[in-house]
Specification:
heterodimer; A: alpha/beta; Rossmann fold; 8 strands; B: alpha/beta; 7-stranded mixed β-sheet; 5-stranded mixed β-sheet; 15 strands
Chain lengths: 305, 389
């Protein structure tokens, strides 16, 4: 924790939701272990806010976290939530067990790009395939930030990282296309630069029955921004970029580099290269959900009674 | 047996069962509610049988995408208050070690049936080979203690599975059942106890009456370690945060990992008398002692009977719990013995090494290694005669 200490009486918290965050509840003040310019503060705050506003029952909405910088987000989320820090990449599998053992639950899974699309890709695919009732939030900062900026499956072509010191030359993995192909029934992508859109999508995912996958593009200034130029994703324009070494520059870049899904229809492949297509990709609320289907199987096994 | 029977308890009396099925029925009797598995020879019958039986009693049997997912789903189910287990073989347990270590840290109870097969690598998949014994003790990174039970018959697979679930609930650690390809596929008559008898033995997942004293591992009045009941997510009896990081005696993260490690070790070692189940056969006047576990015990019984007819004083000390190793009991048993014979279904003699450690090499330990094959009683008898000379 930051060691800020207790708040003085004349101080006011930055916003009314700080005191319901985990660290805020303990210390009476905002506290976080994230770097300056990180997008996870925004996500944690929005999550806390929605959890409070929607009056979600912490007993029915457990939080399953994978391993990554966002594991520290358990300090910034609502203090009432019941959280499990699972193993690297195994969060969807753990949530499957929780959901099936207690079908009233709707686990909310925090995973990252390396967590969900790298090491845990298989669990992600099969959770989507089963259409298990849960929410998977993929935080995509296109880098392995917690271990110090190594290349991730989502690192953009041509980007620098500590394990791709010359340039990234692999094709990138697209969580949304993977989720669509695997059969998730609510699929959307947005960025932390569009917080209200995220709130809208998240509310929709809470009401949706089935696997909801929301990918969030978030900035990592420390390990991605400082090492990369803001002409990423705009190579076809032939601009000379500058380093994205502040949060503002990164948020600007994210806004510039994301394209609405209806806009993307009219763009060619070269223009869409290294871009993030944002928006809603699928909303199929009537698909059979795994735990409900299993309840039917249990009924058959009992002789239809 | 009648597979369409949709009750938790099968009718009292005698049933002809395969080892894997007896183990599954034992688990169901113990209150199993979630099974996550991945088919692997020779443990496949477990998931096949439970896929039929668990939905009948309102449980869930899931075939996950791989072993990693199945063990993680088991941990997830156990966290929300279901008794959960998985069954696999050598290559599966290798994949699952990461999560076994995490479960030990979170102190999540679960039962793990290892139907062993030959290795390393793929090996002879349908042959028994007790070569995962080390893995069943040291699986996973970090220091922690586990419990491993070694049944020798289908009846014991049923009974010891119930015991394994009770151990898991009481000591909150991974509990292994050591089966193997022969035992898993052995068909034997199992005498099932009545429903009341089983229920008397089973320890259910219950929430404590008093939530205020939660997660204290130390009894302040006596200074002893006590193990609180497992917390359940989705109830008030939940710490709010399950981190697989060192936690202190209050259940909160501690900056002193040694306190935590000590707690992990001591919760088992301080209860070693209750955990270590052993059995003896004609040990009173024995000069030679056979220490055995699992299937080789059965051949040893016959060998001992034959040797006794020839006037050789030999007895069997049987380990039912192999991990934690019952140091004191073994020391006490072998202190006057001329020699110890350890027939094992592996080449190295993992338990023989432990006997050597306990006796400080003061007693000769004769191994009878055997790989992928059950000992013939005459093989053991031959060794007994040689040693008796």
């Amino acid at each position: 924790m930051s060691g800020i200490g207790p708040m003085y009486p004349n101080e006011k918290p930055e916003n009314p939701y700080v005191l319901v965050s985990y660290a805020g509840h303990l210390l009476g003040n905002y506290s976080s272990r994230l770097c300056a310019g990180c997008g996870y503060g925004i996500i944690g705050h929005i999550f806390t806010r929605l959890f409070e506003d929607e009056k979600l029952d912490p007993k029915l909405y457990p939080l399953v976290l994978g391993i990554g910088c966002y594991s520290q987000m358990l300090l910034t989320v609502h203090y009432k939530t019941q959280k499990v820090l699972s193993l690297h990449g195994r969060a969807p599998a753990l949530a499957t067990g929780m959901k099936m053992a207690n079908p009233q639950m709707k686990p909310i899974i925090f995973t990252g790009d390396g967590d969900c699309l790298g090491i845990g890709g298989n669990h992600f695919i099969h959770t989507c395939r089963r259409n298990l009732d849960c929410i998977i939030l993929i935080f995509n900062n296109s880098i392995y930030a917690m271990t110090g900026g190594q290349g991730a499956p989502t690192t953009l072509y041509g980007a620098n990282s500590t394990t791709t010191p010359y340039k990234m030359f692999e094709n990138r993995s697209d969580g949304i296309k993977l989720a669509l192909a695997a059969g998730a029934t609510y699929v959307a992508r947005t960025t932390v630069a569009h917080p209200r859109t995220f709130m809208k999508y998240f509310r929709k995912a809470l009401k949706h029955k089935g696997t909801s996958v929301i990918e969030l593009i978030t900035p990592c200034v420390t390990y991605f921004g400082r090492k990369n130029l803001d002409n990423l994703g705009a190579e076809h324009l032939g601009l000379k970029g500058e380093k994205m070494d502040t949060a503002g520059k990164m948020i600007d870049w994210i806004k510039r580099n994301s394209v609405r899904v209806n806009q993307a229809k009219f763009m060619n492949e070269e223009e869409l290269f290294n871009k993030y297509v944002i928006g809603e990709f699928r909303h199929a609320p009537d698909q059979p959900e795994y735990s409900e289907e299993y309840a039917k199987i249990q009924k058959i096994a009992r002789g239809g009674r | 047996m009648d597979i369409g029977y949709n009750k938790r308890f099968l009718p009292e009396g005698k049933h002809l069962m395969m080892g894997n099925v007896a183990m599954s029925e034992g688990a169901i009797a113990a209150g199993l509610k979630f099974f996550g598995g991945y088919p692997i020879t020779p443990s496949t019958e477990v998931i096949e049988h439970l896929a039929v039986r668990l939905p009948q009693i309102g449980g869930v049997c899931m075939q996950m995408e791989d072993e990693l997912a199945s063990i993680n789903a088991v941990i997830g189910a156990s966290l929300v208050g279901s008794k959960a287990m998985t069954a696999t073989s050598g290559p599966g347990i290798s994949l699952m070690t990461e999560t076994i270590s995490m479960a030990a840290n979170l102190e999540v109870p679960f039962v793990f049936c290892d139907v062993q097969r030959n290795g390393p690598g793929t090996g002879f998949v349908t042959e028994p080979h007790h070569n995962d014994i080390g893995l069943m003790r040291f699986a996973g990174n970090g220091e922690f203690q586990v419990i491993t039970l070694a049944p020798m018959s289908c009846q014991e697979l049923y009974d010891l599975t119930i015991t394994a679930f009770n151990f898991a609930e009481t000591y909150r650690c991974p509990v292994f059942i050591m089966s193997d390809a022969y035992l898993g596929h052995l068909h034997e008559v199992v005498t099932l106890p009545s429903k009341e008898e089983v229920l008397k033995r089973v320890i259910d997942r219950e929430l404590p009456d008093d939530y205020t004293k939660k997660f204290s591992y130390k009894d302040d009045s006596t200074g002893n370690y006590v193990i609180p009941k497992p917390p359940v997510m989705g109830t008030d009896y939940c710490p709010g945060m399950f981190l697989s990081q060192p936690h202190g005696s209050e259940g909160l993260p501690t900056p002193k990992p040694q306190v935590f490690t000590e707690m992990m070790i001591k919760k088992i070692t301080s209860n070693i008398d209750k955990i270590c189940l052993t059995d003896s056969y004609k040990l009173e006047d024995a000069e030679l002692i056979i220490i055995a576990y699992g299937l080789p015990v059965r051949a040893s019984y016959r060998a001992v009977d034959l040797a006794r007819k020839e006037g050789i004083k030999v007895g069997i000390f049987r380990l039912i719990t192999i991990w934690p190793f019952p140091d004191e009991k073994v020391k006490e048993t072998v202190k006057d013995a001329k020699a110890v014979i350890v027939p094992e279904l592996n080449y190295t003699g993992v338990i023989a090494e432990q006997v050597e450690r306990v006796t400080n090499l003061s007693t000769p330990v004769i191994r009878i290694p055997n790989v992928c094959e059950i000992h013939h009683p005459h093989d053991i008898l031959k060794v007994i005669k040689e040693v008796a000379k």
